[in-house]
Design a protein that fits this description.
55% of the residues lie in helices and 2% in strands. By secondary structure, the protein is mainly α. It has a two-stranded antiparallel ribbon. Helix 3 (37-49) runs antiparallel to helix 10.
Length: 256
Amino acid sequence: MHKEELRELLEHLHDKYNRPEFIEPDPISIPHSFTDRHDREIAGFLAAAIAWGNRKAIVKSAKRMMQYMDNSPSDFVRNASDSELAHLQSYVHRTFNGQDFTDFVLAIRYITERWGGIGEFFEQNYVATQSIPQVLSLFRKEFFSIEHNTHCEKHLSSIDKGAACKRLNMYLRWFVRHDERGVDFGLWRKIPMSALYLPLDVHTGNMGRALGLLTRKQSDWKATDEITRSLREFCADDPVRYDYSLFGAGIDGYLK
């Protein structure tokens, strides 16, 4: 497929999937249920943290997370008592258990108290480094700098170990990207869309390989970097706009 033909296909798929109808069945619907910036950031982060596997199950489990937090995630993170935190122990989503949930809430509390919020951390550190990979590394180190159970570390990918960091990149897409479609929030304007990396998962990876955008077989950070560089050739200012194209087409079995 010639480059212009591929560009037309990517744009067609983008227009098909980057629509408000995409929101409800997707984990991004969880932060969309709030209006306050910090509620959205915390709800989005926790929803992204459990975003692997069946989307319907992810959304259901993420809604339960919000219920555990009295549907006020920012207030809960800042003010939950020990007894309220203890209530989180009964939560479970696949391998993400109640202790993981508790430790994530406490880590978010630490980030909030030190930086003002998750968004403030990402924006300030991007301004300082001008590098999303460096920011992802710094965030994980900061997040786990307080006492926690080691089991929860598996739920926050390590770019320093070469992970694709799909869920973190998806979370960044939600809060950095902005357009007229209204799916992504575009709240973190100190980070340019051009700096984002594609959330690489089974669907985007398979579609990327099928379309010649990705040659690496292993889905790791090197693959994330490769496919993002390929997409920047089609839209340097907003390469991750094509996340919708690749993910949606993969979900629908476009190449079958």
